[in-house]
Amino acid sequence: MFQKYSLLTFRPHLWQTSSEVVREQPIYSTRAHVFQIDPNTKKNWVPTSKHAVTVSYFYDSTRNVYRIISLDGSKAIINSTITPNMTFTKTSQKFGQWADSRANTVYGLGFSSEHHLSKFAEKFQEFKEAARLAKEKSQEKMELTSTPSQESAGEIQSPLTPESINGTDDERTTPEVTQNSEPRAEPTQNALPFAHSSAISKHWEAELATLKGNNAKLTAALLESTANVKQWKQQLAAYQEEAERLHKRVTELECVSSQANAVHTHKTELNQTIQELEATLKKKEEEIEKLREEIDNAKEIQAQRDSLTQKLQEVEVRNKDLEGQLSDLEQRLEKSQSEQEAFRNNLKTLLEILDGKIFELTELRDNLAKLIECS
Fold first, then answer.
1. Backbone phi and psi for residue 7, each to the nearest 5 degrees, phi listed first
2. CA atoms within 13 A on the CB side of 65
3. Residue range 205-248, pLDDT digits in tens
4. 157: burial class by Cβ within 10 Å (0-12, 13-18, 19+)?
5. What mean pLDDT do residues 67-92 have?
6. What span, in angstroms and rounded, lies between the C-alpha atoms of 199 and 319?
7. Which among 25, 52, 33, 60 has a CA at the least distance from the CA of 170?
8. Region at 167 (left for phi over 0; alpha for psi -120 to 50; beta for the rest)
């Protein structure tokens, strides 16, 4: 006799709770991949769920607060109370994030489509505004009654069930929940550093090119100014020698010449010449001072260029690191695809063997039937 085999359908174990009354009710639900910022680096995203899970907005009518809650099995991976100072930011077409100062972390959600992300962001803004209004009303009530708030004693967590969070019958009232498995929307942590680093690199390269051009011009002007300074110093030395010679000549003329009027006139002319030379000398000294200031500015610009060059090198090192990470991810993806292909080939082989066994059993049955008829 042949035994009949039937497929067994296994249902996951449902997490039952006590008979406590749940004062929070989901008002909007969707599915997304959940991430948290790495607490050590504060830069990289760490996935907190292996697959897309249900993320729900909850409203606590008792305390008049809105919360975002998500469970992965029996583990709460998101429990964030919406406050008026929170901001939900779209970092890509399918990824958004917000910071929770109470939880001291940043949450990230990867959606299957841009529509789901936009809908979640709209609800976030709506409930954020509602939280702001509720806070203002609460403050007005406190001012009128002058009684301390009972809610400041600390937030009491409501008993939650996986059925109310990750979805059972309640999901029929939230059309945004996707029951089938969705393609995982990876965060932009890998893509954004490349785009951001590339933009920074281009910006610093443009700044560096401008500084190089300015530095070349200043260097040329500095060399020209240095040559002019040397020439002016030589002229100044010649003027000083000429002034000394003229002073000596005046002294000699005063001692030797008997013509006081002629000597006085000549002395006046010499004094005027000396004054002109002193005015010229003062002007040259002012020009030398300006050139010194330009030299100091050129040195400061050179220091800025060295700093920008160092930053550019750091950005290049970061880009190389990110390229290495991308290459590692591509290798993992190729390995995963090859393993899936091998698995499909094994399934095909097993299917062929199963078909052969079924054919043999069919022939055996026909033969046995013939033997029974003949007997």
1. -75, 140
2. 16
3. 777 787 777 777 778 777 777 777 777 788 888 888 888 888 78
4. exposed
5. 92
6. 11
7. 25
8. left
